């Protein structure tokens, strides 16, 4: 892998601490025994690890890429024509994401903590530090797999993914490894973290419920429905916490954390990132969108769905009405597009469990979970009854698409379900469905482009790291 420079001094800078507080030489240039000598060192390293997540998730295209790759968004002709290589599926090793490089940089920070934590005496501090590093590492590897590998269920023994690096050594040249083995390692890290991690670690840090919730997502991807249910039960407890209707929009203004299991902080004390700009900017007082809501998806958001006003607004730009994504407009009175990035919410975990219940033969429990979510989303809510299993599954998946719209999930969801991408070529980028339509309409579920390419720089640096087939 590319050599990622990791320094305690860098951590200090990322967390707002002065270098003089530790006065340590770069991590790669000193003895390991001197790198972590106190709990303060470990705390700074943990803070630096979380700071690195901003580069992977907040200062990136994470919140839009999975929607632009799929069928939730359509390119606006009035925008800057960004990400067209991805929305038109014309990507290659030279136009691929920076996510993998950013992710490995944070993984190296997590590995440094794990390599040094045994210097400290047994206790809750040591356990929690180990668990947080394991969880962050697993989180990033899972998302690397979602972007770049076949799914666990569809992968053969010869299908591979990026290496699962667990060392800070900079002279190793690891090879890719089998997808199923990679997923098993993600699960092992999370299972090891779960009993050790604290119930509460404060905002912007992973806690026990977040680990359990991520396990529910992972096991759903792996097709292990029994473990999906167990993990979801643990994450949600006996009374799942969903935002009240009035709080749904407030979650996306950072006014409440109700229903948020883990988010990446993006505060005024940090190097501010503006994830909302991926969707639109303000020009002469009007919203100028990069991508707008696909017409059929917009029609699926009803007037009585509280998510509609929280996620979407319709307004003109240059005299043309468009359906704009405002989920990332930002905090009230704050900088446009600046807010925390929500990576896991209880609503998703509830839907994970509902789907797993149905696949396990418990349609009654699946319907109860579905109706619980719907009761907190529709002002005219009436419980659904009498659904066939096929109808129930379709509604669970429909609610998942609505709930997680514009959070980067859609591409991964179609891939997980082994479904193709089929865009409506009759609808354009205007609010009424007219306007410029998609140029590229269909991607078969077997298309190699469902596995995004690795950066050419990584391939060129490490000859053992082979590019994905087709590129």
Mind explaining what this structure looks like?
With 471 residues, the protein is mainly alpha-helical. It has a domain at 74-89 and 235-436: Alpha Horseshoe (Serine Threonine Protein Phosphatase 5, Tetratricopeptide repeat), CATH 1.25.40.390. It contains 18 helices and twelve strands. It has helices at 8-14, 32-35, 39-58, 62-68, 84-87, 99-116, 124-148, 179-193, 208-222, 225-236, 248-251, 295-300, 306-311, 346-359, 363-375, 389-403, 410-416, 456-461; strands at 73-75, 160-161, 177-178, 260-264, 280-283, 286-289, 291-293, 312-317, 320-325, 341-345, 421-422, 442-443. The strands form six sheets. Strands 1-7 form a two-stranded antiparallel sheet. Helix 3 (39-58) packs antiparallel against helix 6 (99-116), helix 10 (225-236) runs antiparallel to helix 14 and helix 15 (363-375) runs parallel beside helix 16. It is globular and about 65 Å long. Residues 1-31 have low confidence and may be disordered.
């Amino acid at each position: 892998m590319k050599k990622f420079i990791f320094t305690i001094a860098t951590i200090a800078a990322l967390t707002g601490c002065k270098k003089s507080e530790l006065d340590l030489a770069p991590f790669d240039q000193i003895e390991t025994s001197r790198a972590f000598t106190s709990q303060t060192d470990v705390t700074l390293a943990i803070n630096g690890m979380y700071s690195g997540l901003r580069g992977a998730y907040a200062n990136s295209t994470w919140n839009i890429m999975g929607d632009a790759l799929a069928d939730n968004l359509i390119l606006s002709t009035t925008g800057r024509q960004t990400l067209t290589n991805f929305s038109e599926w014309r990507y290659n090793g030279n136009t691929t994401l920076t996510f993998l490089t950013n992710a490995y940089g944070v993984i190296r920070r997590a590995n440094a903590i794990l390599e040094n934590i045994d210097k400290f005496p047994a206790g809750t501090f040591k356990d929690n530090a180990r668990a947080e590093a394991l969880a962050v590492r697993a989180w990033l590897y899972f998302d690397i797999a979602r972007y770049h590998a076949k799914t666990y269920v569809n992968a053969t023994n010869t299908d591979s993914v990026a290496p699962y690096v667990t060392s800070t050594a900079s002279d190793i040249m690891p090879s890719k490894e089998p997808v199923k083995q990679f997923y098993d390692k993600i699960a092992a890290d999370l299972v090891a973290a779960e009993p050790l991690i604290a119930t509460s670690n404060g905002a912007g840090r992973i806690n026990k419920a977040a680990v359990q919730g991520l396990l529910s997502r992972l096991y759903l991807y792996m097709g292990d429905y029994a473990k999906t249910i167990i993990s979801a039960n643990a994450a949600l407890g006996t009374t799942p916490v969903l935002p009240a209707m009035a709080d749904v929009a407030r979650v996306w203004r950072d006014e409440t954390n109700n229903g948020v299991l883990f988010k990446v902080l993006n505060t005024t004390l940090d190097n501010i990132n503006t994830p909302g700009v991926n969707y639109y900017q303000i020009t002469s007082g009007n919203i100028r969108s990069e991508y707008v809501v696909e017409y059929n998806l917009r029609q699926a958001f009803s007037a009585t769905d509280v998510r509609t006003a929280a996620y979407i607004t319709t307004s003109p730009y240059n005299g043309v009405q468009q359906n704009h994504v405002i989920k990332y407009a930002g905090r009230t009175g704050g900088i446009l597009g600046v807010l925390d990035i929500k990576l896991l919410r209880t609503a998703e975990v509830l839907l994970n469990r509902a789907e797993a219940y149905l696949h396990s033969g418990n349609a009654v429990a699946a319907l109860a979970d579905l109706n619980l979510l719907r009761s907190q989303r529709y002002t005219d809510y009436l419980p659904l009854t009498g659904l066939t299993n096929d109808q129930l599954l379709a509604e669970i998946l429909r609610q998942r698409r609505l709930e997680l719209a514009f959070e980067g999930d859609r591409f991964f969801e179609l891939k997980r379900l082994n479904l193709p991408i089929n865009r409506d070529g009759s609808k354009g980028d205007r609010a009424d469905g007219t306007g410029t339509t998609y140029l590229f309409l269909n991607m078969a579920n077997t298309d190699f482009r469902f596995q995004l390419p690795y950066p050419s720089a990584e391939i060129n640096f490490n000859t053992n790291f082979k590019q994905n087939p087709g590129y």
